[in-house]
Write a structure and sequence with these properties.
This protein has five helices and two strands; from the N terminus they run βαααβαα. With 67 residues, the chain is mainly alpha-helical. It has one domain. The longest helix is centred in the last third of the chain and has 18 residues. The chain is globular, with a radius of gyration of 11 Å.
Length: 67
């Protein structure tokens, strides 16, 4: 599943926090900006509580969208 900036904002994230998150977990921020998303499996592997929350938001939105 694709995690976008919309999901991150819905979870309370911001641009500054996003930069720090990508730096902390050695993830490619430039690829996220270029592609517009990061795969949820990569986010889940961090074990970060806020990241897990954001993945759950994305899952909920996907369920709502697809019924």
């Amino acid at each position: 599943m694709k995690i976008t900036m919309a999901h991150i904002r819905a979870g309370g994230g911001c641009a500054g926090g996003l930069r720090e998150f990508f730096k902390r977990y050695n993830l490619d921020l430039n690829a996220f900006i270029r592609d517009g998303y990061i795969d949820s499996e990569i986010v889940l592997k961090t074990g970060d509580a806020l990241a897990l929350h954001i993945v759950n938001i994305a899952k909920s939105r996907e369920l709502e969208k697809n019924g």
